[in-house]
Write a structure and sequence with these properties.
The chain has 531 residues and is of the alpha/beta class. It contains 14 helices and 14 strands. Helix 4 packs across helix 14. The longest helix has 28 residues. The chain starts with a helix and ends in a 22-residue tail after the last strand.
């Protein structure tokens, strides 16, 4: 610690950023799955690319010689058999006619069965929703398409249970009259009967007419987004050659934090790609702050994605890396098949904090690096033992220069990534949250699950911010279940008696005054809280 303080004082006197600058390894050929990709002139990123081993293909020349030899032997055998067949030809004419008829019937049956096999490549989901933003800061989301079920996701003990996705209040005023009747433990009492006097003086009992529902004031929306498309969601197996997994780390991390996941899924046959962000790991660290803005890093990952993308791609992001996965899923909706967000936070636009400790000069951050490392260990892991310290060292986490750290925190400016931007996503998304995470509160991931169209929230009780390093087996099993998951469209909701479906409307207030008071997830037996 004294050495770091001395180095920081020298940095302040000399005006340099310090000696702990991350330098890239010299670009070379791919060794042990590592590659060095130049995304821009002078901007080199380290990428770990593991391609599963494919079974060896037979040599076409050897196959041709083998077939020629077999043909010669067959010709010799057929010459001897031709004489015998000529003698018995008259006897077999009747049987040949029968076999020809059978073959024709089999061919017709095969033609009829072929079209039925075309629909086995997954399930088609109707994605339809209306997003309305009003001038008072209120966001109204109407889900008019299909609803997915998440009962396939498993717990740590292997039992099937529904995910803890945040429920919202239904406020569809247009379908109140046609809504199906549900049992109520405390039914509202009927109004007392009133008496009416006839002309002869006798009184009869009657019922008071119910008051008409209040009229809803018509408001002019500030912005309206309509989404109406169909998406095919299928199971992604390791044996599928058109599936690729992309792992994106966050601030201060590296591709080494995904070590358990890369080894696990590569053994299952998946093609995995994990890059080091600029200034992290073994990637090049430019000494200019503009190289670490959100847009600069997003363009780097766009180049990596276009280089390694397959037909069906799954993006897995952690912390700040979730924002880049969201960006790619929004830019390439046809190629991104599924997304996993691990402790990514809420669906809010990124804006750097002006009162953060990372706004201090780089030399001061260099002096405070031991304290920052200890704070990261305490807040990023549920336990602070020797095992966690070893994981932090092996994962090469929080091992960046103070200049890169300051530039990364100051460059988190992304005003487009607001609630509407996330609500426009139609890809299935799995949200993973560590219970003891001190960087990302539970409310933010619950709010993310509320905004997204197809989102499944899973909470790992023994994990924290670095949950994929603390509980690798649980995370690997959960991710693999999600990769293999395919929606069962046989559980589509039935239409109402009137013949029309009721639209589930989510009313979400996004005014700045209410952003800090997001409701928590309700229990399964309770009604959702009022917004």
């Amino acid at each position: 610690m004294l050495t770091s303080i001395t180095d920081g004082i020298l940095c302040c006197l000399t005006g340099k950023s310090g000696s702990s600058v991350v330098l890239p390894v010299e670009p070379s050929g791919a060794t042990d799955g590592f590659e060095f990709v130049e995304v821009k002139p002078g901007r080199v990123l380290r990428v770990r690319h593991i391609i599963p081993e494919q079974p060896p293909k037979p040599d076409p020349e050897q196959c041709q010689t083998a077939t020629d030899q077999d043909q010669d032997q067959d010709q010799d055998q057929t010459r001897d058999q031709d004489q015998e067949q000529d003698q018995d030809q008259s006897k077999d004419e009747s049987t040949d006619l029968k076999t020809d008829k059978q073959q024709e019937q089999q061919q017709q049956e095969g033609k009829e069965e072929k079209p039925s096999s075309k629909g086995q490549g997954g399930s088609t989901v109707h994605c339809k929703r209306k997003i309305t933003v009003y001038r008072n800061g209120q966001l109204v989301i109407e889900n008019l398409g299909d609803v997915l079920h998440s009962e396939i996701l498993q717990c740590q003990n292997g039992d099937v249970e529904p995910c803890t996705t945040l429920e919202v209040e239904l406020s569809d005023y247009s379908s109140v009259a046609n809504a199906p009747v549900t049992p109520d433990p405390q039914p509202t009492p009927l109004p007392p009967p009133t008496s009416a006097t006839l002309s002869n003086g006798s009184a009869v009992s009657g019922q008071q007419k119910p008051a008409p529902p209040p009229r809803r004031k018509r408001r002019k929306p500030k912005r309206t987004v309509l989404i109406d498309s169909e998406r095919n969601i299928s199971s992604c197996k390791g044996t599928d050659s058109d599936v690729a997994l992309f792992f994106v780390h966050g601030v201060g991390g590296s591709l080494d934090i995904w070590g358990s996941q890369l080894d696990f899924f590569s053994r299952l046959g998946y093609e995995v790609i994990a890059p080091d962000l600029a200034g992290h790991g073994a990637s090049k660290a430019p000494q200019i702050a503009a190289a670490y803005t959100f847009y600069a890093l997003a363009e780097d990952l766009r180049a990596i994605f276009k280089r390694y993308a397959r037909k069906r791609n799954i993006l897995i992001g952690h912390s700040y890396g979730v924002s880049f996965c969201t960006f790619l899923a929004h830019e390439y909706p046809e190629q991104v098949h599924k997304v996993v967000m691990i402790n990514g936070g809420g669906p809010t636009a990124l804006e750097p904090s002006l009162c953060s400790i990372f706004q201090l000069p780089s030399c001061v951050l260099h002096c405070l690096s031991p304290c920052l490392a200890w704070s990261f260990l305490k807040a990023g892991f549920a336990r602070q033992g020797s095992k966690e310290k070893q994981l932090l060292k092996e994962g090469n986490a929080f091992n960046v220069s103070p200049f890169v750290l300051r530039a990364m925190m100051s460059g988190q400016y992304w005003p487009e990534g607001d609630e509407v931007y996330h609500a426009e996503l139609t890809v299935p998304i799995l949200l993973v949250h560590g219970m003891f995470d001190k960087f990302v509160p539970m409310d933010e991931d619950q709010r993310m699950a509320e905004i997204l169209l197809f989102a499944f929230l899973k909470v790992i009780e023994e994990g924290s911010h670095m949950v994929m390093m603390e509980c690798p087996e649980t995370v690997n099993t959960l991710l693999h279940e999600f990769f293999l998951w395919e929606p069962d469209m046989s559980k589509k909701p039935d239409t109402t008696s009137a013949g029309t479906t009721t639209a589930a409307t989510k009313t979400v207030t996004i005014t700045p005054a209410l952003e800090s008071s997001v409701p928590t997830a309700p229990k399964a037996n309770n009604k959702p809280p009022n917004k």
